[in-house]
Amino acid sequence: MSPLSVxxxxxxxxxxxxxxxxxxxxxxxxxxxxxxxxxxxxxxEHWGIDLYLKDESVHPTGSLKHRLARSLVLYGLVNGDIRQxxxxxESSSGSTAVSVAWFAQLIGVDFVAVMPRGTSRxxxxxxxxxxxxxxxxxAGDLYDEAERLGARSGWFYLDQFSRASVVTDWRGNxxxxxxxxxxxxxxxxxxxxxIVVAAGTGGTSATIGRYVRYIGADTQxxxxxxxxxxxxxxxxxxxxxxxxxxxxxxxxxxxxxEPSFVPGVIDEMIEVADGDSIAAARWLAARSHICPxxxxxxxxxxxxxxxxxxxxxxxxxxxxxxxxDSGLRYGDTYFSDxxxxxxxxxxxEPTRRLDDFLRTGVxxxxxxxxxxxAVSTPDPWSLLxxxxxxxxxxxxxxxxxxxxxxxLSRADRLRIALRVADVNEDAALRxxxxxxxxxxxxxxxxxxxxxxxxxxxxxxxxxxxxxxEQVALDPADSGxxxxxxxxxxxxxxxxxxxxxQVVCYVSYxxxxxxxxxxxxxxxxxxxxxxxxxxxxxxxxxxxxxxxFPVLKWRxxxxxxxxxxREAGADAKTPKKWTPxxxxxxxxxxxxAERTALYDAIMTGEGALxxxxxxxxxxxxxxxxxxRYCASVHGxxxxxxxxxxxxxxxxxxxxxxVLTDVRARVLVGVAAKLAPTPATLDADDIAALRGIGLDDAxxxxxxxxxxxxxxxxxxxxxxxxxxES
Length: 724
Known about the structure:
With 724 residues, the protein is an alpha/beta fold. It has helices at 11-32, 65-78, 95-107, 121-129, 142-150, 160-167, 176-184, 203-215, 231-237, 274-287, 294-312, 337-342, 348-360, 386-400, 410-423, 427-440, 444-448, 459-473, 480-488, 493-520, 579-584, 588-603, 610-624, 627-641, 646-653, 661-673, 682-690, 695-718, and strands at 38-41, 49-55, 87-91, 110-116, 133-137, 155-157, 194-198, 220-226, 268-272, 317-323, 551-555, 719-723. The strands form 3 sheets. The protein has a 6-stranded mixed sheet with strand order 1-2-10-7-8-9, sandwiched between helices. Strands 5-4-3-6 form a 4-stranded parallel sheet, with helices on both faces. It has a two-stranded antiparallel sheet with strand order 11-12. Helix 6 (160-167) packs parallel to helix 8. The relative contact order is 0.07.
């Protein structure tokens, strides 16, 4: 955007006219936008307590800091500190800088963001997208470097940490506090019992606390504070000189008590563990249309804390907290299992406490644990065999970022991947694919996540998305008529196959990562938990491979050209050119990498016994409903194990007839990974350890079951099993 232009009669008159135009541009922008939404979070009705989330992520720059940036820039303009040729400077961990960059571009001035190392790449990209420049420094140099740059001639340091509490009119002139009370005016409990917010600069809590006192509302203000922040100690001790290490939760918590933090307006401070904050963000993303950052998770924990105490006191009323920003900015941190593991953070136990709260209304604080920096939770991917990690990465590249897109664009691949992550309730994968899709096609995420908007998509894309959703949810309901309709809608055969590989790969990846994450966060020692053996059914149990008739597979997709290489020519070529593999030749690069991965999982040098891998494949296929895979892998289990009864009994009567405890546990755990969404949890890992499986064997077992979430879907949606 070009700078605002004026024709000054003199330098001063020109700057005054420019300032008027700049202020008018900012005010006009605000007039074009309604206030942010106030969502009601569903709590059990009999509690008599209503929880509201004010969604600040819908601002044009995606965060609560949009309000602060607007106020900072307006304050500088009306004070005469910002002129037509001024370069703005701000120290920020990300969101404020993104918002300032947006306003600087709006009025046509330069902007430099002084930011700490480790700020998410997504935030850096947004700042640069809006024309800002990023100046990266060590966390300890943030303030000094911003002040040094701001002292340059023609530069101005906005200084959010000193000015946040003064640049906003706390009496209610377009501030967040007034908006909350206006929006609550028609609710059952219009005056909130509590408002819960986190502190970064301290400006938001100062504005809300002052406004509550100004209007005489009977509302209490709780400020939540993450690990490593100085605010809580400073508030409790009445000492603004205290320091702390600083927070891992971007945007809130500070290593010092900032000048804008006003302790006197705060009724209570609540400390929140980082694991709770991150788990709550993911938990909310999995249970609502909101995908928030971790600071929102901190707010949610604080809200649950005060609601728990209201319940204990038999108190009714309302609680309001904020959605600070979008989780799309944190795909490589809070929504990355690898990053969370590197930080030594456990999400399993906090997630259980969140589930328990919604059921009981009681919030349980985390149990104190010894802080040993030498002990950390392993990266889930590190528990997988190195060859399987390598092959999965190779598959990911050709499925999601192929050199030849086979007529299926990168944006459409991400649309499908996002929808598959959604139906699998996988918040981590959802955040990754949503962030990538938004960068590829701005605005596309909202359309994908609202099927009513699919009519706005090109007809072919809409048909493909609906088909892929069904494949992810339940491939048994996606038959020949559905594939015929898809092809009739103008989807070429090679696009149909490429799309099938995307939906099936994401189904595999979601289940594998869920299994590995549960393994990474489970106690290492066996629990001794063993299911009881039961007597076999009195009904006749079929024996041997005769229980699994040989089937043929008929494709519903026209075959591509003849293969240009012999079967079994190398490790990436199928050993036979069956009709199934011929069909997959519509996307030969994916076929090659998938073949290598499949063979490594099923026949590679792993820790899990080969016959047990076949049993897991059979169990998964039975749950999914794939007759062809069940037939093939039932026969293979019989051949490898020499057990003439177990596989046949499982197929005929279900796991209850299995007398072998080890087999029953393997089958039961496979059945927990097979559905959409998967239901595997830490208890299942304990059961596997209880039958003597080590971590390597458990990881192998997860890979087999996840692979058959892929194989079953391909078989069932591209063709049909028939009697030979």
